[in-house]
Specification:
By secondary structure, the chain is α+β, with helices and mostly antiparallel strands. The chain folds into 3 domains: 107 residues, Acyl-CoA dehydrogenase/oxidase, N-terminal domain (Butyryl-Coa Dehydrogenase, subunit A, domain 1); 109 residues, Butyryl-CoA Dehydrogenase, subunit A, domain 2 (Beta Barrel), CATH 2.40.110; 146 residues, Butyryl-CoA Dehydrogenase, subunit A, domain 3. Helix content is 50%, strand content 15%. α7 runs antiparallel to α8.
Length: 390
């Protein structure tokens, strides 16, 4: 099991990466509506994140990164998620992979050092490409159709991945595939972006997170070296989840959608103070109903803060966690976030659903939390089965 313990992490008093994230968030938020409207990828955001040293936040200090753990990284993700959740999603996947590769015994040390150095020096993002048209999410089981075949010098990769978040800017793909051996093995292969036989098909035209660049990536006999094999096992050996990795994934995803809800809350407060209906002759903020609903939003966000912060701290401190607990945190935070935005809409009427205001965009974005792995239904079934001892 990968452990995200407290060792090897830098002290974060100086430089203050939280302050850097907050500074960048203002410009990210100003550009978010246009990226959402056009579905364009926010390349400029990642250039600025790189210049601020934020792409190497979870790279170990020994390799020149900030050495941040889950708790600190979740704070940064929440700040960026409040401004532009599409950017936060790509960033969170990059952070997760660097946390894993730095601490996992299955990663060759030479490769983990190389990718760490590249992340410190410039734009070198990584994400895992796992989902396929027929397979769906690997979290629900099944063998991938993406195949790697042995060659004299390494491997040949053929397959089709969907929902490949960040594909326009990724330098590295961590591809989930199976071997063509008599007894197939399944696992991850590290593939540099842009190799001959690789195509990005711009299929992402989604309801929310429209700027995440989650397009299809197609591989046709792509030649990769033998040491591209990162963690490849018999299918049965993948049945038990990596609890620590699942925990950090859950808390980062939760932080993104909590950030969206906070952006909606911020806009709502301004609206309630400024909106003065002629029939009322006073701002909507003076109505007890508005105050009560806003109070309910505050209560949900307060719960989210406590869940994200304490759970991320447990991850960093190596507290023994369960997959069910991780999934329950993600489910609770994301559903609190959705409910908070829905409450905001209940107070704003047509104004909240107008494209001239950001609340409708926040609503579309926050709904993605419900379908983001692990999905709510699988989490509830798992918790129910565990309670029944099945």
């Amino acid at each position: 099991m990968v452990k995200f313990a407290a060792e090897d992490r830098a002290v974060h008093s100086e430089p203050d990466y939280i302050a850097r994230a907050e500074t960048l968030a203002a410009s990210f938020a100003a550009r978010a509506a246009e990226h959402d409207r056009t579905g364009t990828f926010p390349f400029r955001n990642f250039g600025e994140l790189s210049e601020a040293g934020l792409l190497s936040l979870t790279v170990p200090a020994v390799h020149g990164g900030a050495g941040a753990g889950a708790r600190y990284a979740a704070r940064v993700i929440g700040i960026i998620g409040r401004a532009d959740p599409s950017t936060a999603l790509v960033l969170s996947m990059h952070y997760i992979n660097h946390l894993v590769m730095a601490r996992s015994p299955t990663w060759p040390a030479r490769l983990s050092r190389k990718l760490a150095r590249e992340s410190v020096e410039g734009l070198a993002l990584i994400n895992a490409l796992r989902v396929e048209p027929e397979l769906g999410s690997p979290a629900r089981g099944g063998l991938p159709a993406t195949i790697v075949r042995r060659t004299e010098t390494g491997w040949s990769l053929t397959g089709h991945k969907i929902y490949s978040t960040g594909s326009p800017i990724l330098k590295w793909y961590l591809v989930w595939a199976r071997t063509d051996e008599a007894e197939p093995r399944v696992g991850q292969f590290l593939v540099p972006a842009g190799l001959p036989g690789t195509r990005i098909v711009e299929t992402w035209d989604h309801h929310g997170l429209r700027a995440s660049g989650s397009h299809d990536v197609i591989f046709e006999d792509v030649v990769i070296p033998r040491d591209a094999e990162i963690d490849v096992r018999k299918p049965a050996d993948w049945r038990a989840p990596d609890i620590a990795q699942a925990a950090v994934h859950a808390v980062f995803v939760a932080a993104i959608y909590d950030g969206v809800a906070r952006a909606a809350r911020d806009w709502l407060i301004t609206f309630l103070k400024q909106r003065v209906p002629a029939s009322l002759g006073a701002p909507l903020a003076t109505l007890p109903r508005a105050q009560e609903i806003l109070g309910a939003i505050e209560a949900r966000l307060a719960v989210n803060t406590r869940l994200i912060d304490t759970f991320a701290r447990d991850v960093d401190e190596g507290v023994e966690l369960s997959a069910g607990e991780s999934n329950a945190v993600k489910l609770t935070v994301t559903n609190n976030a959705v409910a908070a935005v829905e409450d905001a809409l209940s107070l704003t009427g047509n104004h909240g659903l107008s494209r001239t205001n950001p609340l409708e965009r926040h609503y579309r974005d926050v709904l993605c939390g419900r379908v983001h792995t692990p999905q709510d239904d699988s989490t509830r079934v798992g918790l129910g089965r565990a309670a029944l001892g099945l």
